[in-house]
Design brief:
The protein is built from 13 helices and twelve strands. By secondary structure, it is an alpha/beta fold. It folds into two domains: 138 residues, Alpha-Beta Complex (Aspartate Aminotransferase, domain 1); 239 residues, Aspartate Aminotransferase, domain 2. It has a seven-stranded mixed β-sheet with strand order 2-8-7-6-5-3-4, sandwiched between helices. Strands 9-12-11 form a three-stranded antiparallel β-sheet. The structure holds pyridoxal-5'-phosphate. Pyridoxal-5'-phosphate binds next to helix 5.
Length: 386
């Protein structure tokens, strides 16, 4: 029989983070700082809203765009936080997580061979999503010297006549970096100069520490050039509910809605009801979780620095990204040996792009006590290998 798998899928690299979870799953007494999702259960009243909608018999599809109530709530939420207005009628689309929204955004704008600048280190799906949409990912590295903020000069170097869009995500997975105002303006200037679209994945927007999040679409001249992506997964501990959203100009949204309609029909109905509750009554929950993450963030960053694993201060998301070169190992070896010898799971930085080489991603989505224990185990590890 012939090989039915397409060349393009065969060429796609598998995610570099799965391997460690597969090993960890076979071991006992593992403390995982590996996974990129909250360790909190979705707040009770939000779950209840989802369950109530089921019990009220709301089990059918919704409008393709999402319920009008949820779209209004998303519109009001973005306007309240950032002063940017998107019409709930034709500028908001409810999706199956940012994952779907990201694919729709790319597929809606790319013709075969169009290039998208993918800023790395980044979420493992980004380059693959560009390929799945028929585009060509052009990798541009954000560097530790700039605390993993992307610079206008680095973007400029990657522009070709085929460049159509820049894909950024701040607060960033895996580094925890945020983009300060000056760097945002640099990105905006490049977008303006070369007439590019910016796809801004702001899924960690609510998890920032000692800084305010600035929405990319709120920058002068950027509203019509930006597709803004966000969702419920991280801020509200709702990864399993699968709800996200995209907002953009009406023509862009129209194109994305067309794809969404054929691909998905509508995001899960009960999850949309839960998301509505989260956005309208979940402020206290976000703040409570954010404060707990912040406490753990300080613990883990200090802990790494004390171990000689130099860690710049992450101001967003729930990841620390220390440099592990003091161990004398590659990031892959470090992760494998740490898991085998001390049963602590972290992820090699190189899984998120070449500029992550020599770093590890440690998620502080574990209890304060477990993070303390993980740091003790890592101290033992570093005494042996440092
Ligand atoms: C930067 C980033 N974007 C998107 C996602 C996927 O989010 P969702 O659950 O909304 O599909 C993740 C998940 O790890 C992420 O880190």
């Amino acid at each position: 029989m012939r090989d039915f798998i397409s060349q393009s899928v065969q060429k796609m690299k598998p995610s570099g983070i799965r391997r460690y979870f597969d090993i960890a799953a076979t071991m006992e007494n593992v403390i995982t700082l590996g996974i990129g999702e909250p360790n909190f259960v979705t707040p009770g009243h939000i779950m209840q809203a989802g369950m109530d909608s089921l019990m009220a018999g709301k089990t059918a599809y919704t409008s393709n765009s999402g319920t009008i109530e949820l779209r209004r709530a998303i519109s009001a939420y973005i306007e309240r936080l950032y002063g940017v207005y998107y019409s709930p009628d034709d500028q908001v689309l409810v999706t199956v997580g940012v994952s779907e929204a990201l694919f729709l955004a790319l597929r809606a704008v790319l013709d075969p061979g169009d290039e998208v600048i993918v800023v790395q280190p980044c979420f493992v799906a980004n380059a693959a999503a560009v390929e799945m949409a028929g585009g060509v990912p052009v990798i541009v590295n954000a560097l530790i010297d700039d605390e993993f903020q992307i610079t206008g000069a680095a973007l400029e170097d990657a522009i070709t006549p085929r460049t159509k869009a820049i894909l950024i995500s701040y607060p960033n997975n895996p580094t925890g970096a945020v983009l300060d105002h000056a760097h945002m303006l640099e990105v905006a200037a490049v977008a303006e100069k070369h007439d590019l679209l910016v796809i801004s994945d702001e899924i960690y927007e609510r998890l920032v520490y000692d800084v305010d999040h600035e929405c990319f679409a709120s920058l002068p001249g950027m509203y019509d050039r930006t597709i803004l992506l966000s969702g419920m997964s991280k801020s509200y501990a709702m990864t399993g509910w699968r709800v996200g959203y995209a907002t953009a100009s009406a023509p862009l949204m129209d194109a994305m809605r067309k794809l969404h309609q054929y691909l998905i029909m509508s995001a899960p109905t009960m999850s949309q009801h839960a998301a509505l509750r989260a956005l309208t009554e979940g402020e206290g929950d976000v703040e409570d979780m954010r404060q707990q993450y912040d406490r753990r963030r300080r613990l883990i960053v200090n802990g790494f620095n004390n171990l000689g694993l130099t860690c710049f201060e992450p101001r967003g998301a729930f990841y620390a990204f220390p440099n592990i070169e003091a161990s004398g190992m590659s990031d892959e070896d470090f992760c494998e040996r740490l898991l085998m010898e001390e049963q602590v799971a972290v992820v090699p930085g190189s899984a998120f792009g070449d500029s992550g080489r020599g770093f590890i991603r440690a998620s502080y989505t574990n209890s304060y006590e477990n993070i303390e224990e993980a740091l003790e185990r890592m101290a033992r590890f570093m005494r042996r290998h440092g």
